[in-house]
Each structure stands twice: as C-alpha cells, then as structure tokens.
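Q: Protein A?
A:
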Amino acid sequence: MRPTSSRVLRGALTAAAAAALLGTATTAPAQAASGYDRCSWGQLCVFSDPLGKGQMLVVKGSMLNLGAWDNRISSYVNYSDWPVCFNLAPGLDPRQGGAHEYAGRGSFDESATPELDNAISSLDLGPEADWFCEGESRYATYGWENGPKHRPAAPTALDAFGDLNGDGYTDLVSRNKFGQLWTSHAANSPGHDRLVGSGWNSMTLLTRHGDHNGDGKEDLYARDKSGTLWFYPGRGDGAFGTRIRVGGGWNSMRDLAAAGDLTGDGRADLLAADTSGTLWTYPGNGKGVFGARKKVGGGWKSMNELVGAGDMNTDRRADLVARDTAGKLWFYPGNGKGTFGARRLIGKSGWNSLTELAGVGDVTGDGRPDLVAHVPSSHGLRVYPGTGAADGGLRAPKEFAGLPSDALAL
C-alpha cells in the first residue's frame, strides 16, 4: 500500500512543470569520482553497479525503452523535483511490476524491491509518474466495481459498436502523451489490454464507431499531420490490420466523427465539420472509404466536439451528440437520410470541463448506447447512461475507468 505521505508529496509535485518526453545524456565511466555524488543537483541518475558505482546515465525525461541500459540499472539517485517510476517491462507497461521513488538514493539489491535489480526496461520521470506506476497505467483501465457490464445481444448492426474483440463488453482505445495507442478490455473479458503500437502522435484526429468494411469487426480512422485520412481495419482481437489510404486534403476538417449508418443503406458513414463551419456526411461504401459527400448545413463552428453516439432515442436511426463552445450539450436526431432533425438541449452547462467525449456503445449493459467523457481533474472516465427517450437524454454519470490527464480516449 502506498504511504499517505507519498500522496501528499505527489500532489505537490503534480503542480510542477511536465518533464520532457524523451531525451537522455550518457557519460563515460567516472575516472576521478565514484558513487552517488557524481550526479548533479536537479538530476536523476542511474548506475550500472550498486551504491552509485560503475557507469552512470543522466536521465532527462521519461524513457519508453532503455536501449543499452535495458536490464542494467542497479542503483539510482534522484535529485530532481519529480518522482520516478521504474518499470520491469518496456513501454512503461505496469503489468509486470515496478516501483516509484522520490528524492533520495538506493541500491535495488538492498531495497524493498530487489526484483528490479538489473531488470528495469523503462522509466517514467515527471509530475504524474507516481499516479501511473505499478498497478496504475498511462492507458485507460477499467475499475473492478464500476467497469462495463455485459451487453445483451445487439438486435441490429446499428447497436453493435464499441466492442473490439466481440466478447460483449465495451472496449476503449486510448493514446497517451508518448504516442502509444492502447486498447483496454473489461476485467471480466477474456481479452487483455494491449499495446497496439507507437508513433500515434503523428495523428491529429482519431475516431471509431463500428464496422466500416463489412467484416463484423470494429474499425478505426486516423488523420495524419499531412492531412491524409487512413482506415485501420479491426482484426477482432483489440488490434488493427494493414491501414488503407482514404485520401488527402482532410486538414480542412476541424473535427471528424464516425457515426454509424446515417443514410439508411446499412453501411457506416462519417461526419466531418470543416474550418468554415460546414458539416458534411461522407457515405460509406462498405469497404472503409466513402462516396460523394453530402452537405448537412452551416453554422457548426460553434461546436467543438462531435460524437457519433449511436441510436440515442430508440427510433432505429443513428444520431449525433455535439458540444458547443459555451459548454452546452445538444442531441441531433438522425433522419436516416444523412442529415438531422431539430436539435434538443441535453446538457445545460459545464461540458467544456471534459476534454473528450466519446460514443463507445452500451457500457451499462441495458441495451442502450451511452456517452463517455474524459475528466482530467480526476484522471478518470465517466459514463453517462443513455435513457433511450425521444429527447436523447442522459442519466446521472458515474466514474468507471481511469485515464491520465494527458491521454485521449475513444
């Protein structure tokens, strides 16, 4: 159990400036000096031998992989302002174990965690390192008590979205500040949380909602910095197959939302709001790409978040939830023709305090799609259960998963 004093210290440290993502500098083995005192004040240093002896590495920030220092760290001294989390696995994966350390020094072979001696493969240095160490993580993790519930069988494809591995539970996709993309599964799921890959910080928008190529598996779209949109077909196991290029020029879009079948032809579609405030429907062709777009309407500059949340009013048509710049939440009922009926207010204020909103299907197991919101202040995700009512309204939320404040969830 983590001591109470560490929680207090962690809170103070979180207010400090964030550490650089990566970057290290090595020094040659000491010639004149040896021991911990070789490390300058304000630095974290690790050593190849106990008691600060042997080769020394000066750590500038979090390291997903230690390279030549993998499984070589035997002792450390932390003179920095931040906590450090040492992980046994690469990629800051907490599932194999680790330990958090604060200001001080020590040799792992004489510590409470001797299993870390010459066994560390990644480390996290920064104001949030203590939050996401050992059993906690830098990807979305479901709570044991408030995790997603098993869904009833979906009556139509319109209801079958958000489940990446076909086990009947909502799954999450999250990208952390290191550019890692993870998929997360419920505690009762036979699936395991997995690292999909790294380098996803090259993508400026990501969105998912159901099956877009007709194989019955959940897919993903991502736009890169050059404006190219890519289709990532789901494999049905929480990962994705070889990507397909949809097209270029998508930097003209402020937001994208995979929203299910908006046009009533049985194929999943895409919504896109451009920089001028026009909203477009891109009808899917059943192969992951799209036909000629259809204009929905103008005036969408006032919206800063679009969510394809599913059939929220139980009329068998895909709907849209949107948040405006004033922090209000609106429900747009789909008409089955690629556009929407008259909107309804379902959230009066305060929604701008939530950094992302996502539609991941039925989280609560009642057969109705729900809305998920990222709450950075609590490092968590809330679920707002759908009511299925004609106004697309939501019930009171509860927190059901943890997520770092600097991560994206969908």
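Q: Protein B?
A:
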Amino acid sequence: MTHASLPLALTQGDPAGIGPDIAIAAWARRRENGVAPFIFIGDPDVVASRAALIGIPVNIETCNPADAVGLFDRAFPVLPLPVGFEVQAGQPHVGAAHATIKAIETAVALTVEGKTSAVVTNPIAKSVLYEAGFGFPGHTEFLADLALRLTGKQVTPVMMIAGPKVRVVPVTIHIPLKDVPAALTEELIVATCRIIDADLRQKFGIEAPRLAVAGLNPHAGEDGALGIEDRDVVHPATMRLRKDGIDAFGPLPADTMFHDAARRRYDVAVCMYHDQALIPAKALGFDDSVNVTLGLPFIRTSPDHGTAFGIAGQGIASETSLVAALKMAAEISLRSKVNT
C-alpha cells in the first residue's frame, strides 16, 4: 500500500479534554479543510456523547485501519479502545489514563507496522498520567521509548514547533530555567542540530536547511561580558556543525531573531530553552502551529495546545491546530523516506 492509501492514526488524547471535540470538528469540515483520512483510536462512546454535546452530527463506524480510508468520506472511523466508564467532558479522571496511554501505543505500533502513515496525537494531561504511574516527562519521551521497544533502535527525540511563519526547536525543554546553563552542552547542541538538519531534509524536503542558533544570554553574551555560555559552548557547537557541512550560524541575540526580515534568513530557529522558542512561536502562530517530533523512525505531529478541560464539550474549541497537524502529517508522509 502507498502512503496515500493509508490513514493517519489519530489518538484520542485525554478523553475528558478537547481531543474528541476537535477531532469531530475536523472530520465534519474535512472537505473544506482538506483533511486527509484518519482513523480515531479511542472510545466510540466518548465520540458519540461529545458529538451530542457540541451539536455536530457524526456517523460513527468502528473499523480497522485497512477500511478507514474507504469509510472516511461518509463516516467517522474509530478503532475502538473503550475507556471503561462514562467520561464527563471537562472532568479528568485517573481511571482514563490506561486508555490514553494505550491509544498512543496502538497508534505508534500501527505506524511502525505500515498500517497507518503517521501518528497524530491529541493533547494529554500529564498530571493525570503521573497519578496513574506514567513514568515519562511527556509525549515526546514516551514516543522515544516506544520507538526503542518496537524497532530496537535508540533515538533522540527533538521537539519542533512549526507554524506558517516560523519553525523553532528548544535544545532544553521541560526543565527549570535555573538548570538550563548546566544542562546546555556543546554536544547537546550539536546532536540536536544534526537531527534537525537530517529531518528537515528528509521529512520537509529542504535541500540545504539554514539553522539560526540563538544565544543563551542577552545579546548572545557579548563575548563573555554577559555570561560565558555563548562564547564557550554555543559558538564552538556552531563551528563544529559548519565543519560537518551543516549551515548553522550563531550564537545570535534572541531578541532580534524573530522579526519579519530576520525570519527570511533561516529555516528553523534553534533556541536554548523552552520559552525562548515557544513564546515567539505562539505569538506568531497561536492557533495554527504544530508540534512535530523529529528524530523518530516514524512521523508524529500534534496540535500545539493542551487539553483545555475548561471548554471541553462546549462546542467552542477550535480545530485549527489539529487540522494543521493532520495536514502536515499527511504532507510529510507523502514526501518522506521514512516508513518506505
């Protein structure tokens, strides 16, 4: 089967959050939004009850991935994975954690086996999963563990936020700001940039990616006057990368990297910590940015927002970011050399 004949594997996410809402909305407006066929991995009862709450008529059919593409035009295809109790919109429950995790495991296994073309994950509530004993900081680390289990290959996952105006990658992610300088090493920057360069070529079709590397300190440290990390860590990393033929340049003052003219000079901004990357990404594309995990042996995208329990089931959650994630996953799967 070709990628065009395979559905995307869309996980339910936390069933009490807006994952079911936006999946239903994306399917309902599939033609106007150009959404590629997907199979929803989750509880059909959750889909039915949520569709009734948000007032969107939906014809649900349970099926296997092989039948999803043929059904997609007339029905919302679901690979059934029951939660085990009646889910209340906006009311997360630790009892749903197993189904949330199982949906991710199933989506990855189906994609690695070549039965689906890519993984698209709806938002999870990490606090709920932690309460159930989930042993990973988040989606990204769990996906890397699944890749190891299913392929036997150790991978280093890299989080990229890709929007219509900018792509950003934080080198360090979910750690306190006070811990960033110690965690930031030349080797980490080099390894991260190598993965970015390889995946932009392979999955995004960019022949010669340009990587703008931000400095850690104000004004990129001013040659040590405002901190030595940029002089002693970031700059040597970019020099190594350039010797390897990777077009990485920096360290650059982060406060001048994100205006219109600056963004035209690079394909991705490599930032030193979480907010340095995600503040400009969300300011420039809050509703339509996509979380893409680089470095995996399969394709994974996700909406760049959380579970939004406060608006689940109210019919006001926007499916824009999920639609962008579905479209990006489909585009990458057609262009990419992975899973072939």
